[in-house]
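Last lecture ended with a question: if I hand you only a sequence, what can you say about the shape of the protein? Today we answer it with a concrete record. The protein is Tetratricopeptide repeat protein. Below, first the input exactly as provided, then the predicted structure, then a couple of comments.
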Amino acid sequence: MKSFLIPLLLCCLSMTMEYAHGQNKKSKEVDAKTRLEAEFYFTEGEKFFILEDFAKALVLFRKSAESDPNNATAHFKMAQVYRLMGDQVQALQEISTAISINPDNKYFHALQAELYTDMNEFDRAADVYENMISSMDGTDEYLFELAAIYLFQQKYEKAITAYDRIEQYYGASEEIGTQRQMIYLQQNKLDKAIAEGEKLIESFTETDKYAVRQVELLLNNGMEKEAGVEIMELIEKFPQSARLRLILSDMQRKSGNVALAEESLREAFRNPVMDIDTKVQQLAEYRTLLSEDELRERALPLAEILTEVHPESALAYAVKGDLYQALGDRAESKNAYLKALQYDQSNLSVWQNVLQMLIENNRMDSVLLLSEEALEVFPNQGMIYYFNGAANLQKQNYDEAVYALEQGKRLSSANLGLVSVFNSMLGDAYNGAGDYTKSDRAYDAALDFDPDNLAVLNNYSYYLALRKEKLDKAEAMARRAVDGDPDNTTFLDTYAWVLFTQEKYKEASKVIEKAINLGNVSAIHYEHYGDILYKLGEINAAVEQWKKARELNPKAPLIDKKIAEKTLYE
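The predicted structure:
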């Protein structure tokens, strides 16, 4: 409301001065004392009006009008107050009184028209504006309100006439031309709309906005041939217009000129003035529409141009990274993402993408370094703690892993699936830290959410077997993991080791033999097989398996001692 009162106040100050010097000849009939009294009430009313105490302002303006019946401005002020109080009918009565006293004040007529507009009496509002503009000097500015009313009423011819009159007074403007063109389109007068577009192009040559709009107008109305001629002329007039070249590229592609279309598109991308967001949007559309071969042939060159033209744009490198990622080129994708981070570290998805790639490549030192940097920028993002925790867990930094994973879990409480992932990793981390109670609690929480989480079933059962605790539970979980993935040699080894811990040696030997027969096994499989054979009394066979284990891992604890002494050490 304050912004409305300031111009009103300026207006009223000028009218207050007018009142003080006499509004018309009738004001001379009021004696000086009465006039001073009227002025006093008016001035006091203005104070309360500014303070938005409209009830008091209204009383004082009324007293001013009663003191001086010829005080038109007091009635004008009362009309303003009533309008602000929502009583348009009473406001209209007061402004009519003001006009009857002083019919030559344009502000009075303008308020009357506004009140008619408030009451949806648009014809009467238009009549007031028309009469005022035709009979009073300095009222040309109200042509804009008149045009708006005609436009709202869909009286298009009258609106056009009003805009023509505005142009006569103020000259050509983008707003007038655009409004006129819109009206012609509403009237289905396409020829006039096109002609208006040409006028806009000629009048405002510093922008290609109207050139682009003109071509789109022709295309949207099925005038492809005309659009083809027009766009070539416009490109000569606006050679730096990337948007026109984008439209040209699309037109050429639809007509089958793929090579020309690609060249036009590349010309658009080479334009440094073209908004990079538009270029990125084009590449994003390519990612969803094109095959992998087409992406490589058509999109990659554009991505390269993008980073050449915008060498310090993080967005350019980020979209290039996305494109290489879609093509499966992890190395180039990672390099592009890292380049993006050099220029802007505020894009969370870029951090996550590059961290994921480093995790996949087992670059844990890099994951630790980069995730620490990311946490300085995003200290409240659970996924960054996930990467940091995963890397610390892999590096056997168990205390650091526990801290990161607990932080990530807390920040991800709304995502139950992600919380379960954190719990599964916390089970491993707490076990490594020797806090078995918290480890079991974390594993149980993960399995409560997903009872078929095979990795948790395997790890939980294996650690219980190593501790020789809850072996029945460990066996059930290990069997469930194997049932879920029967050819997983890691799961088979865990199941065999749980059976071994339960002294079910024959069953354990069958399971570990299946794992070894599947191939792709590690030293621990052969060592466990040897331990099982030893318990079955097959000492020499056990030693042979331990030797195979030593070949794969010479540094395995106790392996040399087992072989040398032909004895099982645990």
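Comments.
1. The first helix runs from residue 2 to 20.
2. The two ends are 84 Å apart (CA to CA).
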